[in-house]
TrEMBL record:
Annotated metabolic or biological route of this protein: Amino-acid degradation; L-threonine degradation via oxydo-reductase pathway; glycine from L-threonine: step 1/2
Positions bound to Zn(2+) 1: C38, H63, E64
Function as written in the Swiss-Prot or TrEMBL entry: Catalyzes the NAD(+)-dependent oxidation of L-threonine to 2-amino-3-ketobutyrate.
GO CC terms of this entry: cytoplasm
Listed InterPro entries: ADH-like_C, ADH-like_N, ADH_Zn_CS, ER, GroES-like_sf, L-Threonine_3-DHase, NAD(P)-bd_dom_sf, Zn_alcohol_dh
Protein name (database record): L-threonine 3-dehydrogenase
Domain (Enoyl reductase (ER)): residue spans on this chain: 12-338
A Gene Ontology biological process term: L-threonine catabolic process to glycine
List of residues binding NAD(+): I175, D195, R200, L262, G263, L264, I286, Y287
Species classification: Bacteria, Bacillati, Actinomycetota, Actinomycetes, Mycobacteriales
Amino acid sequence: MKSLVKKWAEPGLWLAEVPEPVIGPAEVMIKVQRTGICGTDLHIRAWDGWARQAIRTPLVLGHEFVGEVVEVGSDVADIVPGDRVSGEGHLVCGKCRNCLAGRRHLCCATVGLGVDRDGAFAEYVALPASNVWVHRTPVDLDVAAIFDPLGNAVHTALSFPLVGEDVLITGAGPIGLMAAAVARHAGARHVVITDVSAERLDLAREIGVSLALNVTEVSVAEGQRMLGLREGFDIGLEMSGRPEATREMIANMTHGGRIAMLGLPSSEFPVDWARIVTSMITIKGIYGREMFETWYAMSALLQGGLDPAPVITGRYGYRDFEAAFADAASGRAGKIILDWTS
């Protein structure tokens, strides 16, 4: 089958023929229809410091996808050929304390699809049935393909109650943009998002944020004044992984403010811990989604009118993956989709 492979330990990706996966008794075979390009995939393609440490080649990339079930193992119930499905890309051990307590997203032995094992940038992908999400209600294929990153956005945005709150989001990448849409939908009073990309800030305005700030021109403190905020932001959603963005967020939180951090820094950096302590700020780290509570929340939000489709700005056939990855890496695009049906 055709797949996008990290063949060698060097920059680049290769479209190659690899054997089709073989499923076990508790697994499902899925014919891939659409995939989303994630920041993780960009790191692997670039072969940066994180990728050199984390990835073993050869590897089929990809963990954001939608497809159709074509085969199920003998032990699989409630999933049948023809079902439209997405997949939870974190495969957990099922045996550790957190797994046994139902907190599977906190598993200490998580294996990542398309990172630690072959992924979904291929014509077929095999996945444990326990990681398959069946779309029981109609959903657009492109939107279904980005349930994984939408789940990151939903998990982060809904970490704290949002009704009537003033929310600061640092980083207007695809997940930051989706988090802004979720925050608006969930009842936040003001949603402010920051970035340095004019194109992404324009996307944020289309989504309906209160302010989209280019922080090379307008500070977060100035944004506060523009909205008439007197004490700072109630909720912070850090999506950029940038040290300066995190420090700016901490400096503009109200006393007792709460910060959910999804952005992954490339290295350690200092923050003002005295400010965090004396302002009694809560900081929560977010990795992935709650299995499967976040997935239920995503489906419910979509049924309730949430529309993440404006975040999708590029669609390419998988053979045009070089152009698709260049678009995704430009810093100007939203979410980029690869079509595996043509």
